[in-house]
Design goal:
Blueprint lengths: L6 H13 L2 H8 L3 H15 L4 E4 L2 E4 L1 H33 E7 H6 L1 H11 L4 E7 L4 H6 L5 E4 L8 E15 L12 E2 H6 L1 E5 L4 H12 L6 E6 L2 H9 L5 E4 H10 L3 E3 L1 E2 L4 E9 L6 H16 L1
Parallel strand pairs: 3-4, 3-5, 7-12, 8-9
Antiparallel strand pairs: 1-2, 5-13, 6-10, 6-11, 6-13
């Protein structure tokens, strides 16, 4: 056989066996009798078997017809299960969104994006997993999340990516720190020589800083303290622990209110792109596509 029997022909055969009449089976399927007769004839030709014996008293299945109808019944049940299952998966997909975001994005941007999405989709459940940029690709590749956001200098290999925002890192200190009294910008060499409050390795902020220092021909920063979130770094600097390199998004309000002071540094580029990432070869659909649309709208307003 060059082609498999179509499901509606199999369903017609099963119904002929159940009701004992071609016209009755056709009526249940909403088919005209001539059309139903053509379907059965085409099925018999395809299988090379006589399946239905037609008499004046009606139609009944032959021995071969009963065997084929039994197999067809199991096939149709499995197809119904397939359709029911895929509909359930589609409904679940449209009712929830699983997101992984790096710390800075999760703390500073994702709440606004998700809030705007849920204003139009109040029934939508959004699960936000907060991690560092290094872990987001693994969560996507394992299928644990539908969409990710990272702040690393490069888009992760093997994933599709789209820029959703711009950010830059700032050197910040508490108001009483000696660097606030400088008349000239801090040099990169002075920055590297100073013990800093830093994000942990694997974070996008740390990776951006490390890469910028390498491009400037210098080594790694000197850790005074390594912390797992921008909020923890911010609080440590406000408490006077020491200077830090941190996202401008995370400290904008503190700079405006005078709780922190930004120190200019020359000879280093600390701007970066924040990206949405998803499984390569797939087009985001459903809530994931809707959240991406929110990030685009917000990006245009920024």
């Amino acid at each position: 056989m060059s082609q498999l029997p179509d499901p509606e022909s199999l369903r017609l055969l099963v119904l002929v066996g159940d009701v004992g009449s071609l016209s009755g089976a056709a009526a249940r399927l909403g088919l005209a009798q001539p059309s139903a007769s053509k379907r059965l004839s085409a099925l018999e030709r395809r299988l090379g078997l006589v399946l239905v014996e037609r008499t004046r008293r009606g139609s009944r299945l032959t021995d071969a017809g009963r065997a084929v109808a039994g197999w067809a019944q199991r096939v149709l049940q499995e197809m119904d299960a397939l359709l029911t299952g895929t509909e359930a998966l589609r409904t679940k997909r449209d009712a929830e969104l699983r997101v992984a975001a790096s710390m800075t994005v999760a703390e500073c941007l994702a709440p606004g994006w998700i809030g705007e999405l849920r204003r139009t989709r109040p029934e939508l459940y959004v699960g936000l997993q907060v991690t560092n940029s290094e872990q987001v690709p693994e969560l996507l590749r394992s299928g644990a999340v539908d969409l990710g956001f990272v702040e690393s200098p490069r888009a992760p290999a093997g994933l599709s990516a789209r820029q959703v925002a711009r950010d830059r890192l700032l050197v910040v200190v508490a108001p009483g720190h000696p660097w606030t009294r400088r008349r000239r910008p801090l040099s990169v060499a002075e920055l590297v020589a100073a013990p800093l409050v830093l994000r942990e390795r694997g974070s996008g902020t740390r990776e951006t800083l490390d890469q910028a220092l390498r491009k400037a021909g210098l080594g790694e920063p000197l850790p005074l303290l390594e912390l797992g979130s921008a909020t923890a770094v911010r609080n440590a600097v406000i408490a006077g622990t020491g200077p830090a390199v941190i996202s401008e998004l995370a400290v904008a309000a503190d700079l405006a209110d005078g709780r922190l002071v930004s120190v200019e540094v020359e000879g280093i580029e600390l701007r970066r792109a924040l990206r949405a990432v998803w499984a390569s070869g797939r087009v985001p659909v459903g809530p994931a596509a809707e959240l991406l649309a929110v990030t685009r709208r917000r990006g245009k307003k920024a």
